[in-house]
Write a structure and sequence with these properties.
The protein is mainly alpha-helical. Helices cover 80% and strands 0% of the residues.
Length: 133
């Protein structure tokens, strides 16, 4: 395992679990299994990439360990991007049409609010499961 893969592993794992969790929630809420699978992939993939990026930035000291604000700012931008990818990707795969959410600014603003919770979880899991910072 290379140093880069060791550094990015926490973000990769957290992104994967978040995508699978979203797919599971879709199933529990009564959505068809195809919808749940698309949800898991279209949210999981960007969270894997962005989570690995966050882990890499933390390891390089760009986003300081022990400080929540820099990671929260990262996810303030990154999480809405991941959710937008999921929204557009899901519509594209299941409805075969490219469409943005009806009120894009409200959608992005809400996702930015939710991002704080994701950032808290990301930092908590990374710092407790991987002491790499």
């Amino acid at each position: 395992m290379t140093l880069t893969s060791q550094i990015t592993t926490p973000g990769l794992v957290i992104g994967t679990i978040a995508g699978l969790f979203a797919g599971g929630l879709a199933l529990v809420s009564g959505m068809p299994s195809s919808w749940a699978a698309v949800t898991a992939v279209t949210l999981g993939l960007p969270l894997v990439v962005l989570g690995a990026g966050c882990s890499l930035l933390r390891a390089r000291g760009v986003l300081r360990s022990g400080a929540f604000a820099p990671v929260a700012l990262y996810w303030l931008l990154a999480f809405p991007i991941a959710r937008l990818f999921q929204e557009v990707g899901t519509r594209l795969v299941l409805n075969e049409q490219f469409a943005l959410p009806p009120d894009l600014l409200a959608f992005l603003a809400f996702q930015a609010l939710v991002s704080v919770g994701f950032a808290i979880g990301f930092v908590w899991v990374q710092e407790r499961m991987w002491r790499s910072g």
